[in-house]
Write a structure and sequence with these properties.
heterodimer, A: 126 residues, B: 90 residues, mainly alpha, Na+/H+ antiporter, subunit MnhF (chain B)
Chain lengths: 126, 90
């Protein structure tokens, strides 16, 4: 009973992760400047990476075919998802800060940029 | 249970996302775009390692995902620091 519940929850999280990765892939290709693409990318790294890895850990807890290593696999999956949950926003923020400070990526359809108004390229529509 | 059939049905979605990320990683007009594409490809690879570890019932595949997650963070920090201060290293 409890094993089936764990497996179904985990499979649901894996399917949610696949959907989120697809949305993130479309968003990364459709958005118009680097900072908007970063928004799509963090969807892909939290919804598309942390949740399916935690779901895989839940599946491994309830999936008897894995044998004696199933708890090892579940623990490693939870540790990995926690590491990505901490490290992925830190990395994205460092990258965005470096890109903005060194003027690598302009803010292309811009409304207001309080950090550096000279990087704000107005126009270009919404 | 139907775990393997379900995962076999879900994995093509991840592969489509891989192709989309690869397009952005190769095309990306600026350097941070390339790095962002490589970043997303590596996260996708980490998820695929773990999901395939369940699919093939091979628990050893999961060991590869933890250093991969740490290296993605290291790549971000290295590139950000190189762009800001023009020095390599942590």
């Amino acid at each position: 009973m409890i094993e089936e519940l764990l497996v179904y929850t985990g499979l649901g999280l894996i399917a949610l992760g696949a959907f989120a990765q697809l949305v993130s892939g479309i968003g990364v290709n459709r958005f118009r400047n680097f900072y908007l693409r970063l928004h799509a990318a963090t969807i892909g790294s939290i919804w598309g990476c942390v949740y399916p890895i935690a779901g895989a850990g839940l599946v491994a807890l309830g999936y008897k075919e894995l044998g004696p290593y199933s708890t090892f696999m579940a623990g490693a999956a939870f540790v990995t998802s926690f590491l990505i949950l901490i490290l992925s926003p830190a990395g994205s923020h460092a990258l965005a800060r470096a890109a903005h400070k060194t003027r690598q990526a302009l803010v292309e359809p811009c409304v207001h940029d309080a950090l550096d108004p000279s990087m704000c390229v107005r126009g270009g529509g919404s | 249970m139907f775990v393997q059939e379900f995962i076999a049905a879900v994995i093509p979605l991840y592969l489509v996302a891989t192709v989309l990320y690869l397009y952005r990683a190769l095309k990306g007009p600026t350097i941070p775009d390339h790095v962002l594409g490589v970043d997303l490809l590596s996260y996708n690879l980490a998820v695929l390692f773990i999901v395939l570890g369940i699919f093939f019932e091979e628990p050893i595949l999961i060991v590869t995902a933890i250093p991969l997650a740490l290296w993605i963070y290291a790549l971000d920090i290295y590139v950000a620091k190189y762009l800001e201060r023009k020095v390599m290293g942590a």
